[in-house]
Amino acid sequence: MKHVKKVSRRTRVVTGGALVAAVTLGGFGAWSASATSSAPAAQAAVKADASNKNLTQSTRLTVDAASRAAQAALDAARKDNQRVSVAVVDRDGNTVVTLRGDGAGPQSYESAVKKAYTAVSWNAPTSELAKRLEQAPNLKDIPGTLFLAGGAPVSAKGAPIAGVGVAGAPSGDLDEKYAQAGVAALNK
Amino acid sequence: MKHVKKVSRRTRVVTGGALVAAVTLGGFGAWSASATSSAPAAQAAVKADASNKNLTQSTRLTVDAASRAAQAALDAARKDNQRVSVAVVDRDGNTVVTLRGDGAGPQSYESAVKKAYTAVSWNAPTSELAKRLEQAPNLKDIPGTLFLAGGAPVSAKGAPIAGVGVAGAPSGDLDEKYAQAGVAALNK
Amino acid sequence: MKHVKKVSRRTRVVTGGALVAAVTLGGFGAWSASATSSAPAAQAAVKADASNKNLTQSTRLTVDAASRAAQAALDAARKDNQRVSVAVVDRDGNTVVTLRGDGAGPQSYESAVKKAYTAVSWNAPTSELAKRLEQAPNLKDIPGTLFLAGGAPVSAKGAPIAGVGVAGAPSGDLDEKYAQAGVAALNK
Amino acid sequence: MKHVKKVSRRTRVVTGGALVAAVTLGGFGAWSASATSSAPAAQAAVKADASNKNLTQSTRLTVDAASRAAQAALDAARKDNQRVSVAVVDRDGNTVVTLRGDGAGPQSYESAVKKAYTAVSWNAPTSELAKRLEQAPNLKDIPGTLFLAGGAPVSAKGAPIAGVGVAGAPSGDLDEKYAQAGVAALNK
Amino acid sequence: MKHVKKVSRRTRVVTGGALVAAVTLGGFGAWSASATSSAPAAQAAVKADASNKNLTQSTRLTVDAASRAAQAALDAARKDNQRVSVAVVDRDGNTVVTLRGDGAGPQSYESAVKKAYTAVSWNAPTSELAKRLEQAPNLKDIPGTLFLAGGAPVSAKGAPIAGVGVAGAPSGDLDEKYAQAGVAALNK
Amino acid sequence: MKHVKKVSRRTRVVTGGALVAAVTLGGFGAWSASATSSAPAAQAAVKADASNKNLTQSTRLTVDAASRAAQAALDAARKDNQRVSVAVVDRDGNTVVTLRGDGAGPQSYESAVKKAYTAVSWNAPTSELAKRLEQAPNLKDIPGTLFLAGGAPVSAKGAPIAGVGVAGAPSGDLDEKYAQAGVAALNK
Amino acid sequence: MKHVKKVSRRTRVVTGGALVAAVTLGGFGAWSASATSSAPAAQAAVKADASNKNLTQSTRLTVDAASRAAQAALDAARKDNQRVSVAVVDRDGNTVVTLRGDGAGPQSYESAVKKAYTAVSWNAPTSELAKRLEQAPNLKDIPGTLFLAGGAPVSAKGAPIAGVGVAGAPSGDLDEKYAQAGVAALNK
Amino acid sequence: MKHVKKVSRRTRVVTGGALVAAVTLGGFGAWSASATSSAPAAQAAVKADASNKNLTQSTRLTVDAASRAAQAALDAARKDNQRVSVAVVDRDGNTVVTLRGDGAGPQSYESAVKKAYTAVSWNAPTSELAKRLEQAPNLKDIPGTLFLAGGAPVSAKGAPIAGVGVAGAPSGDLDEKYAQAGVAALNK
């Protein structure tokens, strides 16, 4: 089963649907005033039928799931009396949840984000990815990445959908243990 | 029907699926050496069944559809003898396609990206959104946005999924005409 | 009572304490290897007694409290069927918690952070602060700020200690309602 | 024949031409309102005759050619069932075309841009350039560059005019194979 | 005659030319070690004949011409006893020449670059462009621009090819007078 | 004794305190006009009692102490006839004091900040931390850090509270000697 | 008397001086290892005699003077029970001294730097400069500037040499009062 | 003789001078409207007499000298048929002159600036400095630096006052040869 699948018959959308969208337009975006939004032009809606090849869908963690994973990682660190920060990043590299732990070092916050980003980029724990630098050392020059243990990938249907990153413990192995605890919480 | 829907029974994923994922791991990421990737830990896969609330799905344009829209916008401008740049941005704000038109001004490229970003953020043409500044002028201080005509939203099932931005024509109205032409191409 | 108070007799620290610190050094920071950390030089510890004027203390939300506030803000938005992102920022401007809500616009995440930052900077709701621009319009040019409704301050002992920011609802007033719901959750 | 050549008699421009330029001024730039543009001062035009040494010309790919190359690279990757992003950069380092492939990792987009930039900077495939780091390791500290296989130069008349960059496949060699396929498409 | 013209028969390039390119490869780029550069693959060269539609050419000022213009602008300011900085930017927005004048304010350097950028983007003096903000105030939010008098466009064959920017004098009108003096020097 | 301790009975704050806060609101923030600030909503104050788990406190150097340390470091360098810059950074990574020494190299200012940041992040002198790179070389890719001798940590009660960084001397060992002199000044 | 004056006979330097420079080379820069620096090539020294037009000199505050001014500004604020941050910037826009005051808002630090920068750029208090925006509103788009009261210029021999910026008090007028107190301290 | 010397009796400035400054205020800064500048407060001037310890002076290249050096470097490269960019940076790290050579690679411009910055930071050719990385490899992580041959320092009175950077030739040795030619031009 593929990560990116064509939308099926069930997701069909017609132009009339776009007009409905206009009515509920206010529901999207940070629109910050008493809205009197006019309807977007009808042609802004993508006509979709069973043979539509315009659309694809991607799977992601809900914010609740991501938050639960992050909290679980933080709790695992606390059990070990470690002060860490935690981040969950989606497959597009967007940060979904961050937690700056009490007393965690200032460097831990952004480190956690980058570890999560790295894990989801290559769908592997960052401890594994750090080893790959022996063969391709310049991988670490890719913007957004950090090749330190502490990042764990989350996959669904065999494809990466998120990364959990932890930073701040005295070793990367510990960081990654907590990140994995975060991932594990998703299956409880 | 909602933009963000819970995954159904059909998208269920079991831990065994995660092991399969490990086998095809190389298929994801810019991994740049002869890969001997070890399997990610089994717990990295999200167990999903019919009642799974961990996952959600988002709809987006395929890169082919986005590219077709961008090309159509560029062609529309060319018919009018205008030199523009074009961008398509997805609902997460990621740039999917950019085209720097021959002879377009240097400011047009980033302008196109920001117009597309703005249109998808509020699911409305930027010509409409620019008017809203009368009531909420500080909206334009939100990073990534540009409140100039030339951005058109793309929606599916009543929800925004992409924005098309055009910049470089002598007026924003022209820019937006071309952006709308790009959106229209999605329904051909 | 003042926000910044001198540490009392109870927080006294002697040099011996610093040596103890050295032993548990590994417990701080993202130190990512099997640590064999040598002790920091003894003079790195600040000698503190009752008359010590070197030290001050600042109050902040625990990450658990900040997380609870953020979650409450998100839940309040969900009750209204709104898709938002939420951020909590401490008095030093550091982001403590972020939540990118399901289906929230791409602009909402950074907007939420900036609203929270603005609220804690001036210890007032951003809806109030936006009004102040009439008299001092250039306030909005201060880096990190966003003068849109949706940010609510958190204070303790009369001093600002955090800000909660929400973005993504169709109006700033709604955003701020959710932010206030987040703050209110701290007193439950 | 040189990359940078002096303009010949055929490109001569007189001041009268500048006045014509004023009339069609609106045709350049993202000028976003009903234009009533006044003529630029006559002295703003460069007088050029056969002996003019003020001007030079540079060759570049048309946006159509660049788009065709990018699409060809993406298609080549798809044939191998690989998910990649593609970028084409001109000799001045400007991004001309980008394509974020369906399901490509989040790190692939910017990686593709940087590989293309690197290839056009030194007019060599990035797989070659990565080897040069053995002798000059600090080359990789130059802003904008990425020394990973996957970038291919495009030259005309013996001079570099563009770079094609691909990222996201499990190895850089694969990335570069697709980039070369993109270049090859220019000669079809 | 158009700004962007298709390359004629005279610029034809064959694949053999690409091989020649390989030989002289070292001549391009900041390659910083004893070069033993291998030849780029033959397919990296764009085959070009009289009907080739892959290539286009853009006109620009030589660095010598740009330098002469910048120096003339600086001299004009000095005659008035004014301390300014000067920049020349090409049509792609690249800075070609900068001069930080003795005693010029710290803000003048980047201001000069942005004024030049703005002038070349819309092919008009920035004093004119500043007036256009009355109708389209958000134009000034486009990255890289500065809508203050002091920028003058340079055109050739009716198309913009460069901008000259000056900043640091007590009024923008003076700044623009010097910028125009810089442009005028191109025709001497 | 812990770095992060729960606030005791003595720091209790009631809602009434929040109203007082409103009265003195003007005292916080860079509010830059004749303030007529309305009171923040009462619920913006965190109710705190002896069992309150919402709040925590962190210890930091006063600005006077930080300034004295920075000055002492600068003086120590001057005694050796060295030209350096100095920075003090708090545990959250915020720069508290900077001094750009007369004649110090341009690179020294930011280097001092980063050394201080690195020292406080791992609570160890940067000379020690630089050695740790042998085992975990990618630590140096963490944003904000610089692994060069010259940074010294400041701790209180066994926990890091600040870092002092010095840069500009001909060797890092000298830089660190001055940084340590700065720390030592705190105990005089 | 001019701000920028030609160096007189007294500053003459001969090539032999350059060789001396080589010997003491270690004294400049953040060179961080046991130095075995070779002499810079002799031609690296500028031959200077009485008629030398290569060199100019600029006046600046010593770091001690700048530090005294900053401290005086902070003290003045404290007398009024205000929590502020302070910055001193030199004529080239470099930050010389910063002080983040205890309890000052997070936005105050960068605001102080920008106010100081603005004051020294135009050699006027920022309260005056803010008024000038009525006539030239786009001045505030110049990078690095902030047009809020609180910045005071320092001049010597009729030319600007530094700016003092203060931020964090409830009004800009207060901020500027403290900044002026900082300047005044230079004449005590 | 020292780089930083105290100002002598001859540079004395009295408060009356400050009033004169007010009159000629318009002569500084990019003040962009019909100026009606009020006088800065009298206390903004630093009282200076023979014993004044507030002021120091720094030596720098005039923009004319810097421009001549840059042009000489460019010419030297042209003689060798090399396409390069050139930059001159002052002791404070400010870019004074830049020249983007015809046909130089896109990476050459910023590389030249960074090489110049590096050379003036440590007062040594960057070819020398690159060797020092063997002992202190992390020096290259200092922001603004680039450890590639091609940067040459300029000194006066034994102290660094500027750096000349060249990039774009096939080897760093060539780049540095041209940079040295630029420095040499200062003594002609």
Give a structural overview:
The structure is a homooctamer of 188-residue chains. Chain A has helices spanning 15-23, 63-79, 108-122, 126-132, 172-184; strands at 5-6, 55-61, 85-90, 95-100, 151-156, 159-167. Chain A is globular, with a radius of gyration of 20 Å. Chain A has a 4-stranded antiparallel sheet with strand order 4-3-6-5. A two-stranded antiparallel sheet of chain A has the order 1-2. Helices cover 32% and strands 19% of the residues of chain A. By secondary structure, chain A is of the alpha+beta class. The longest helix of chain A has 17 residues, at 63-79. The first copy, chain A, has 5 helices and 6 strands, in the order E-H-E-H-E-E-H-H-E-E-H. Chain A has 2 domains: 9-47; 63-185, Haem-degrading domain (Beta-Lactamase, 2-Layer Sandwich), CATH 3.30.450. In chain A, helix 2 crosses helix 5. Chains in contact: A-B, A-C, A-D, A-F, B-C, B-D, B-E, C-F, C-G, D-E, D-H, E-G, E-H, F-G, F-H, G-H. Chains G and H meet through helix 1, strand 2, strand 5, strand 6 and helix 5 of G and helix 1, strand 2, strand 5, strand 6 and helix 5 of H. Chains A, B, C, D, E, F, G, H: Residues 1-35 form the signal peptide. Chains A, B, C, D, E, F, G, H: This is Heme-binding protein.
